[in-house]
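wait is this the right file?? whatever heres the structure
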């Protein structure tokens, strides 16, 4: 689509480490991780950062929904009422409290 600067916010520090790591050959999801590596090597600027799931409710909703689907590409229509709810939630900056015991 021609995007040159991409920001990828993930709520899993483990996923970020796997995506930014090099040695994943023995990992059970090596094929998926390698695909991420291929995408990151393209001619664009990608910033990968950690965000708590409460900071991006629409992404959390899509991830939760994705766990119930078979592996592969799935299209979620923008008309999905729950997705609209969470998008508005994110746009309005509604926040929730969260106790974080260990940042390490």
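ok assuming it is, sequence goes like this
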């Amino acid at each position: 689509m021609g995007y040159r600067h991409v920001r990828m916010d993930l709520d899993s520090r483990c996923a970020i480490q796997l995506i930014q790591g090099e040695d994943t050959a023995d990992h059970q999801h090596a094929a998926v991780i390698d695909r991420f590596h291929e995408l990151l090597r393209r001619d664009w600027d990608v910033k990968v950062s950690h965000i708590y799931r409460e900071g991006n409710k629409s992404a959390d909703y899509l991830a939760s929904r994705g766990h119930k689907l078979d592996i592969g590409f799935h299209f979620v229509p923008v008309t999905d009422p729950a997705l609209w709810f969470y998008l508005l939630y994110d746009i309005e900056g509604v926040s929730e409290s969260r106790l974080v015991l260990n940042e390490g």
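The mean pLDDT is 81. so i think its the right one actually
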